[in-house]
Amino acid sequence: MNSKNNSTAKYKQQLLGIRDAISEIDNSLISLLAKRRKLSIDVADIKQAIDKPLRDQIREKELLGSLVEKASLLNIESRYITRIFTAIIEDSVRYQQEYVQAKITPSTKNNLSKSVAVLGGVGAYSHLAAKQFFAKSDNQYDACDSFDEIIQKVERGVTEYGVIPIENTTSGGITEVYDLLLNSKLQIVGEEKLPINHCLVTKKQLELTQIRTIVAHPQAARQCSQDLEKITKARISLCESTAHALATVAAEENSDSAAIASEQAAELFDLQVLKKNITNQERNYTRFMVLAKNAIPVALTVPSKTTIALSTGQQPGSLAKVLALFENANIPLSKLESRPIPEKPWEQLFYIDLQGNIDEPHVAETLASLSSLCKFLKIFGSYPSENIIATKVSADSVAHASLKRAELNTTSATPTSPPKLVDDAELSKSIMRISPSKTLQESIVDLNGTLIGKNSFVLSAIIHNLSSEHDLEELFNSIAECGLSSCWITNLRNLQTDKSRNSLDEHSISRVVSLAKQNQLSLVLDIASAEQLVLVLANNGIPRIAVSKLEQLDLLDSVGNQTSPVIIQQPQSDNYEKLLNAAEYILRKGNQQVVLELALDYSKYTPSNLASIAKLKNLTHLPLIIHLVGDKIDLQVLPILVSGIRDLGVNGVLLDLTDKNQNQNHESDKQLMITAKELATIMTKI
Fold first, then answer.
1. Distance between CA atoms of 292 and 117, rounded to whole angstroms?
2. For residues 69 and 75, what is the distance between their CA atoms, to the nearest angstrom?
3. Which residues pair with residue 450 across a beta bridge?
4. Measuring CA to CA, which residue among 436, 401, 387, 420 is closest to residue 285?
5. Is the Cβ–Cβ distance between 226 and 280 less than 8 Å?
6. How far apart are CA 260 and CA 120, in angstroms?
7. C-alpha angle with apex 34: 32 to 40, nearest 5 degrees?
């Protein structure tokens, strides 16, 4: 017994020593990060002196590629390194921008206390957004009961700033705020984007069936409508702000009421979180504008936005002329929204966010030119852009790094090369004979961050018949490690019951999308009905539909009415009539985010197969992906075939990672047709 105690004490002592060593490393990391920040300020000073933009994304991409390669030699995963250094780079960019901006306007984000008007006060989302924007200072927050009161207090000088929501990714623009800004003299001097994670909060723990009243701001209730419909016995009581909702529930003696609020706000009011994440859409953000009496100049080296409102009247082509002005001046528009003018039936007022600073000559000239085209023009102000788009490491760098890690981890002998199916030189010649003509402007489709179309080419992986979360995690990790940005899943089984089902269930979709997101992968899921389409889109997945399923008119209509991307898939065939007809129907209904997918059996490859692909590519402006199917993979032929397909102007290739014909059991789930190392090899060759 004493021996066991001595052994335990020894291990505890060793554990303490290891933890001390880890803490020492962590402290060193903090010191190094602080040193890196200081050096980034030196960079900002030099760039300002030579009038160079603060951000250099080419340099960032090279840096990430170099870091990923160095990390691979130490057997560190590329996704781990990219996540850490993407965050470091983003912090560096923000730090530089704030430093440069502070030289012009030292009062905006310094540590001096400010007075800020917000809707509802402590606990409201406006309050959280204001605290996030003015994070460096301890401020006085003035609680207001309405948007109008916020604007009035800033206009009268009662407060220096006002923070007001302008739009939400789920419920859209806030009409009342637009109307108030139009009649106000205030200037927009900043923006803040806040993730909105609505929770159902109560005074004590309750069952959902026990709730009789749900108190919420109208916007919050609208953004959580789907979950609220399930609580059938509760009535919805609307109030002025989230802070009011929290105060009402906290003060009530009756404990059968609930409020919709954030987890942070619930803590402030000592309330219990009954249910998290009740928002209709997983990615739910509200954009807030920071208002002041006077405009605040923005440094020309800081990326900026300018918000304007204009009316063109009803002359034919008037809006097109306005948009052409921005295009000719190379000024991107990040937002264009229309609102009816109440006193002028059928006339519209357009709210525009443009990327640029009013003090930049080309922006000022363009805005001046608008005067002759517009009946009404109001400039709300220029302000630093809150969005910092992360630089992505090149797929080539990730693939090379993955190969190096695989070499470090391998313990077996190098396998011999599989036999060739056809002669490489002969295959290359047959590919080179086919060249598509470019007569149409190709469209570009955004698959949740993966752009497909025009000159882009993406390699994606497809998984069949997997039900185990563990297997999915391993495969997603392998796919991401190879530098791929999207994954496709067919016949997704129920992750709760572990049994095959014909219909997708909400839990499985939500879980698999979450696993993909952790690996920064876009996820494509097969659907067969309008109901499944709603489920997949609600969980931020991308629907993939076999062309045979589009004979269901309700499904075809539902797809056409969406603004989200959709993939139409057809087995190998020389007859594309059904595929193109289905695509044309969807486009005419309104959805322009359509990707075509065609299967090609590479084990039965002939030059005529590539000719048929070229023919299809020339018949449509839509992005085209080729799904390579077959019983065996020849790793020597495959890179040549993929490169040939790319040379035809095709926008991507889809490779099977698992056998779709395998028996559906746990033992076979892990049988891969192609390993991560082999996939990385293909990536480097193409």
1. 10
2. 10
3. 447
4. 387
5. yes
6. 14
7. 100
CA-closest candidate to residue 64, choices 52, 78, 54: 78
Cα separations (Å) of 98 from 92, 187, 622? Answer: 10, 19, 42
If one counts every other C-beta atom within 10 angstroms of the C-beta of residue 330, the result is 10
Provide the pLDDT for residue 287. 94
- DSSP conformation class of 105: -
Residue identified by tokens 């979180």 is 273
Q: Letter for the amino acid at 598?
A: L
Could you tell me the pTM of the whole model? 0.68
217, two tokens: 């701001």
Contact 668, 643 (CB under 8 A): no
Average pLDDT per consecutive 10 residues, the chain (686 residues; last block may be shorter): 72 89 94 95 90 87 89 85 90 90 75 86 87 87 92 95 90 84 92 90 86 90 86 84 89 85 88 87 87 92 92 81 92 89 78 94 93 89 84 67 62 40 35 35 82 84 73 78 78 56 67 80 86 84 86 84 89 76 87 90 69 81 88 73 83 78 44 62 67
- The CA–CA distances, whole Å, from 421 to 304, 399, 605, 672 equal 56, 25, 9, 20
Alpha helices in 147-224 (DSSP H): 147-155, 175-182, 218-223
490 beta partners: 464
Do the beta carbons of residue 271 and residue 202 sit within 8 Å?
yes
Rounded to whole angstroms, how far apart are CA atoms 461 and 476?
Answer: 10
Q: Kindly report the CA angle at 619 between 617 and 623, in degrees rounded to 5? A: 45
> Helices 637-647 and 607-619: crossing angle, nearest 10°?
30
User: Using an 8 Å Cβ cutoff, are 627 and 599 in contact?
Assistant: yes
Q: Which residue has the tokens 């065609």?
A: 598
Residue 222 in 3-state DSSP?
helix
Distance CA 640, CA 637 (A): 5
β-pair type (199-202, 272-275)? antiparallel
- Cα gap 681→686, rounded to integer Å: 9
